[in-house]
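Protocol step 4 of 5: obtain the predicted structure for the target chain.
Materials: sequence only (see below). No template structures provided, no constraints applied. The aim of this step is simply to have a reference model before the mutagenesis design in step 5. Sequence pasted as it appears in the construct record:
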Amino acid sequence: MNALAETVVGLYKPECMMIDGPFRTADELKLATFSWVHWFKENRLHSSIGYLTPIEKQDEYYRDINSQSQPALGELIFH
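Step 4 output (structure tokens):
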């Protein structure tokens, strides 16, 4: 988990702070950070998931889960 945090911080610094900064106030930094986190979690293309956005991959996952055959009403289910 620590490596993941270091990776995210390593991306945040150059992509948010250095490109959008310097910031004059803490509120400017907060707004830029919220914007970057939103982009990072929802809009970035990620190579390890086929250059999809995380939201697209999540939607694909749930679409696949929900399309699996569901038991018919009254059908016996074995676990």
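Step 4 remarks: The chain has one domain: 2-66. The two ends are 33 Å apart (CA to CA).
Proceed to step 5.
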